[in-house]
């Protein structure tokens, strides 16, 4: 297996120890520093539930209510799920605020969901005062330790002087590379302590932007493989949605008239009504999508992790295909299914580079590639006709799929549809 990579967007560099030019700093307590830092990072919406350890923070939310909208939930898990939905819908980092102890533990399911689905969140948890940490104080839990396996990064802030820098760094981590949740655990006394506040521009966080350049030789290799394939399939996941790579994917797919099958997380990254969409694949996918994977000679996997709900038995998944895996997270490469060629890259950058490479090819080469797959498309259409997707309601029952179809028609495809893992999502498609 050959693997090539690109930068994930941020590179660590040594922090300058030189004293900056003297600036006039305003002293404020930690709770206000937190809110000011959130506003600096573009936050205007917070989902939360008050509790004793975060009362100072709620005082400041009230003071800054003209700049911060707070949505009161009835359970901390709901706060994190709401922040996750907000992040998915807006493209911004979602923010949730919960108290210590049961507040933090109630938030764990939402944090784990965001981690599994690569959703950028900053979850702020209250903590008991620093002097009693480790004494089994009232509503004390080790939030740092509990959340460590289900976050991209987490912090326990013991010094108010570190708070602003931690908040700024947390947002960079949550949204850079492969997005994910970050937890900031703040003891109550830290929110009451006072120190000078430095703005984002007055800090040196040790991060700098780096160019995301995809290896042109690798892109040429991938493009040529796609052009030469007789039975290719594009298998796309949540990485398409996260990277906002839908347009780039559509460009490549339509240029070469290629079939596409999305994972559950990838739905929305490619139009499900498009003639080249095979529908979702895997355990709850369509017959045509699964048969196409089984018979393909080239599988181009973009922004996916080869989840067991998709692959079933790994040894028999895409048995005839040469596999190309493109993902921003190098840990995903070969984790479940070993590819023949891999590229560590943001989906948008990789697909844009493939489209640019195709633009350099002659019309004759593109047309020849499309014509070579005539028999492949005829076979796919036979599978689609043999087992079409259908969900027929009757006079006595309305199937969930019918409801969703009607919502789609009424809203002209503009509705955001949310389902649970029940009949709407995993019911038999045939």
Summarize the structure.
By secondary structure, the protein is α/β, with parallel strands linked by helices. The protein has helices spanning 30-40, 55-63, 76-90, 102-106, 108-117, 143-147, 163-175, 188-192, 216-228, 238-242, 246-256, 287-295, 308-311, 347-359, 363-371, 374-386, 400-410, 423-426; strands spanning 2-5, 10-12, 26-29, 45-48, 69-72, 94-98, 121-127, 153-156, 181-187, 194-197, 207-209, 232-236, 260-262, 298-302, 322-327, 341-344.
Descriptive overview:
- The protein is 38% helix and 17% strand.
- α13 (308-311) links the parallel β14 (298-302) and β15.
- By secondary structure, the chain is of the alpha/beta class.
- The chain has 18 helices and 16 strands.
- It has a six-stranded parallel beta sheet, with helices on both faces. Strands 5-4-6-7-9-8 form a six-stranded parallel beta sheet, with helices on both faces. It has a two-stranded antiparallel ribbon with strand order 2-11.
- α12 runs antiparallel to α16 (374-386).
- It is elongated and about 70 Å long.
């Amino acid at each position: 297996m050959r693997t090539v990579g690109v930068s994930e967007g941020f590179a660590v560099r040594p922090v300058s120890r030189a004293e900056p030019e003297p600036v006039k700093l305003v002293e404020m307590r930690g709770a206000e520093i937190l809110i000011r830092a959130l506003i600096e990072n573009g936050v205007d919406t917070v989902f939360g539930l008050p509790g004793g350890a975060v009362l100072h923070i709620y005082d400041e939310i009230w003071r800054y209510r003209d700049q911060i909208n707070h949505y009161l939930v009835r359970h901390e898990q709901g706060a994190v799920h709401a922040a996750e939905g907000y992040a998915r819908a807006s493209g911004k980092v979602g923010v949730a605020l919960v108290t210590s102890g049961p507040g933090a533990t109630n938030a764990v399911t939402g944090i784990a969901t965001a981690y599994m689905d690569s959703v950028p969140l900053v979850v702020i948890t209250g903590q008991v005062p620093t002097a009693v940490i480790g004494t089994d104080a009232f509503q004390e839990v080790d939030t740092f330790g509990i959340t460590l396996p289900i976050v991209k990064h987490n912090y326990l802030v013991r010094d108010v002087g570190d708070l602003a820098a931690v908040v700024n760094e947390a947002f960079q981590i949550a949204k850079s590379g492969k997005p994910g949740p970050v937890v900031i655990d703040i003891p109550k006394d830290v929110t009451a302590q006072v120190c000078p506040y430095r703005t984002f521009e007055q800090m040196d966080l040790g991060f700098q932007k780096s160019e995301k350049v995809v290896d042109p030789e690798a892109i040429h290799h991938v493009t040529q493989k796609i052009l030469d394939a007789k039975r290719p399939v594009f298998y796309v996941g949540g990485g398409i949605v996260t990277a906002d790579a839908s347009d780039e994917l559509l460009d490549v797919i339509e240029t070469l008239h290629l079939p596409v099958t999305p994972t559950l997380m990838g739905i929305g990254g490619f139009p499900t009504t498009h003639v080249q969409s095979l529908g979702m694949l895997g355990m709850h996918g369509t017959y045509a999508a699964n048969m196409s994977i089984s018979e393909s000679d080239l599988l181009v996997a973009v922004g996916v992790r080869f989840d067991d709900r998709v692959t079933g038995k790994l040894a028999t998944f895409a048995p005839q295909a040469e596999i190309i895996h493109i993902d921003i997270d190098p840990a995903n490469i070969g984790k479940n299914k070993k590819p023949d060629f891999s590229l560590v890259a943001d989906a948008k950058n990789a697909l844009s580079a493939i489209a640019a490479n195709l633009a350099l090819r002659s019309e004759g080469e593109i047309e020849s590639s499309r014509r070579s797959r005539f028999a492949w498309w005829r076979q796919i259409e036979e599978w689609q006709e043999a087992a079409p997707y259908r969900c027929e309601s009757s006079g006595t029952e309305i199937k969930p799929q019918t409801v969703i179809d009607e919502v789609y028609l009424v809203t002209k495809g503009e509705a955001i549809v949310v389902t649970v893992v029940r009949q709407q999502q995993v019911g038999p498609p045939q």
